[in-house]
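The pair is quoted verbatim below.
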Amino acid sequence: MQRVEEAFKELANRLTLILPVLIIVILDFMVDLVIEVLIPPTLLTRIGISIINGIAFSFAISMVFSGYMTTPSLYEEWRDTSSRLNCIIELGIILGFFFFIFSYIPFGFLLNSLALAFLLVSFPFVYKSGIRGINQSLQWLTRAISEDALSFIIIYLSALLSFFPVIDILLLPYGTILGYIVYREVI
């Protein structure tokens, strides 16, 4: 419970971390809207929109994480994130494919949330080691869940609710911060 509270206090002290998420969410919504209006609905369109959404989530998490690790200035967050752009896009494409595949499964949004929660938890590893960090985070995850299951339930719930408009602006930064706090204390 202490980690959950600490993440909430950190977010309350750094509300400027919400700004990049707000910008990315608005841009993602506008791009999705333009694609849906201009391009007929096909399988490729759905794949494209899922990948764009995955990249947007990955980019938003990266901006929040960069702002949390450095000073929360939009310029610094952008500079730090752009230095990891290849990895962020790769993670976004993978996440987008999960979004697409799980959209055909009943209650697939629960699996989408699980994929997003995994990204929230594994981002400190990715930040440090690039795409290879995913493998390290898989090994770390079982040990960390057994040590602090409540934090992972909260991260999963924040990922689940991040698919709803407006509340996602607060929950993506919160889940990112909580994921880092768990990483920092369990590593």
